[in-house]
Specification:
single chain; alpha/beta; Rossmann fold; 5-stranded parallel beta sheet; 10 helices; about 45% helix; disulfide bond; SGNH_hydro_sf
């Protein structure tokens, strides 16, 4: 025999359950996430790209995509682009943000400092030429880049006033010691790693000044740079654009854990 419950009784029971907090909770709202930045955020180096992303070379194996795959997300705006500078972020990427954006991630500054040209000079040139290129980049990083980062971070906050913003840094590219025939010598590798430390210090300081979180990836890449037994960063490779960028393992085993340590 089926017992019938009147609509009035049903409504009373439902109301009581809500009052006592026993009703089934509504599904948690997903995160509105926007991933900004340069090739270290778009996923250059993974050799696997979304065909619709063109020269921006956005990868399904980049850390933003991996984060989305492991979290509840309502909207995802993936606008990071290979070669982007702070100017490109300001001009082309901020449209992904709005007052409803919950999370913003960004890596930026390496191209402003001429990262690719410095590495090329050190790869092909003399020790003295490498030293000069790195020192010039450091001068730019400590002198001009802070203002460009501040401008970019202010614009992000203006467009996404309630978002949590996580700024991700750059790894040291190289392991020191023996690296095989034809590789960049240890002196130059040390210079380039020093450049990574300089830009990491500046980015961290400017992120803190903006009230943003900073995710330092250098420790997570330790032992897995170029010249390691198990490198997570490409050396000189083809296509050339992938050279000295994180492999898929660098995104899954270094960048993603660094981001998740901040966001949960």
């Amino acid at each position: 025999m089926r017992i019938r419950v009147s609509p009035t009784v049903g409504a009373l029971v439902a109301g009581l359950l809500l009052t006592l907090g026993l009703a089934t909770p509504a599904a948690a709202a997903g995160t509105d996430y926007a991933a900004l930045g340069d090739s270290y955020s778009s996923g250059v180096g993974t050799n696997n790209y979304d065909g619709t992303s063109g020269s921006c070379l956005r990868s399904p194996q980049a850390y933003p995509r991996l984060w989305v795959n492991s979290h509840t997300v309502s909207t995802f705006q993936f606008v990071a682009c290979s070669g982007a500078t702070t100017r490109e972020v300001l001009g082309n990427q901020l449209g992904a943000l709005n007052s409803g954006t919950d999370l913003v991630t960004i890596s930026i500054g390496g191209n402003d400092a001429g990262f690719a040209d410095v590495v090329t000079t050190c790869r092909l040139g003399t020790d003295s030429g490498c030293l000069s290129a790195v020192n010039n980049a450091k001068s730019y990083i400590t002198g001009t880049l802070p203002g460009r980062l501040d401008e970019t971070y202010r614009a992000i906050r203006s467009r996404a006033p309630y978002a949590r913003v996580v700024v991700l840094g750059y790894p040291r590219l190289f392991e020191l010691g023996y690296c095989g025939f034809g590789s960049i010598n240890e002196y130059k590798r040390g210079l380039l790693n020093g450049g990574s430390d300089t830009i990491s210090s500046v980015i961290s300081a400017r992120a803190a000044a903006a009230g943003f979180s900073y995710a330092d990836v250098r420790g997570r890449f330790a032992g897995h740079g170029v010249c390691a037994a198990t490198p997570w960063i490409n050396g000189t490779t083809f296509p050339v654009v992938e050279s000295y960028h994180p492999k898929a393992a660098g995104h899954s085993s270094a960048y993603l854990p660094a981001l998740t340590a901040v966001t949960g």
